[in-house]
C-alpha cells in the first residue's frame, strides 16, 4: 500500500503557487529606493525637514517588510532544495547586507538636521538601494531560473 502512494514534492507556501515572499519583497525595494530619492530631495531643498521625515518612515517600513520577507525566504530555502543554490543563498546574503546597511542608515537618519543625511545617510541609502535591487534580481533568478524558465 505504501508503494502505491506517490510522495509529493514540497511546494512553496503561498497563494496559487506564488510564494508569500513575493508579496513582501517589493515593499523594501520601493521603500529603500524611495528613501534614496527623498534624501536627494532633502539635499536639493537645502534642508527641508519634511524630506528627512519621509526618509525615516520609508526606512522603517522597508526594514519591517525586509525582515518579514527574509523570514519567509528562509522558510522557502529550508523546504525547497532547488532553491538551495549559490544564487539562492547569495540573494539571501544580499538581503541581510541591505538590512544591515539600512539599519545603520536608520540610526544615522535619527540625528537632527543636515548631518542626518549629508553625507553618510545619502551614501548608505545609495548602497542599500543597490543591494536590495541586486537581491530582488538574484532571488527572481533562483526561483524562476535564467530567462524566466523554472
Strand content: under 5%
Q: Which outline best applies?
A: elongated
Q: Which spans of ≥5 residues are poorly predicted at pLDDT below 50?
A: none
Determine the structural class based on helices, strands and strand pairing: mainly alpha
How many beta-strand segments? 2
Radius of gyration equals: 19 Å
How many strands, what sense, and barrel or not for the largest sheet?
A: 2 strands, antiparallel
What is the CA–CA distance across the termini? 33 Å
Report the helical percentage: 55-70%
**Separate helix tally:** 5
Mean pLDDT: 86
Give the neighbour order of strands across the main sheet.
1-2
Task: List the helices and strands in order.
Answer: EEHHHHH
Secondary-structure map:
Elements: E1 14-15, E2 18-19, H1 21-24, H2 26-44, H3 49-79, H4 86-109, H5 120-144
Antiparallel strand pairs: 1-2
Tell me briefly what this model is.
This protein is mostly helical. The protein is about 70% helix and about 5% strand. It has a two-stranded antiparallel sheet.
Amino acid at each position: 500500500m505504501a508503494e502505491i502512494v506517490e510522495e509529493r514534492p514540497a511546494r512553496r507556501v503561498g497563494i496559487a503557487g506564488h510564494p508569500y515572499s513575493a508579496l513582501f519583497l517589493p515593499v523594501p525595494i520601493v521603500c529603500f529606493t524611495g528613501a534614496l530619492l527623498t534624501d536627494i530631495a532633502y539635499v536639493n531643498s537645502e534642508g527641508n525637514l519634511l524630506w528627512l521625515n519621509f526618509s525615516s518612515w520609508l526606512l522603517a517600513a522597508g526594514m519591517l517588510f525586509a525582515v518579514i520577507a527574509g523570514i519567509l525566504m528562509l522558510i522557502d530555502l529550508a523546504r525547497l532544495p532547488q532553491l538551495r543554490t549559490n544564487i539562492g543563498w547569495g540573494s539571501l546574503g544580499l538581503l541581510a547586507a541591505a538590512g544591515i546597511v539600512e539599519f545603520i542608515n536608520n540610526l544615522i537618519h535619527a540625528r537632527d538636521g543636515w548631518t542626518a543625511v549629508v553625507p553618510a545617510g545619502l551614501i548608505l541609502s545609495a548602497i542599500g538601494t543597490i543591494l536590495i535591487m541586486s537581491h530582488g534580481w538574484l532571488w527572481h533568478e533562483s526561483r524562476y531560473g535564467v530567462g524566466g524558465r523554472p
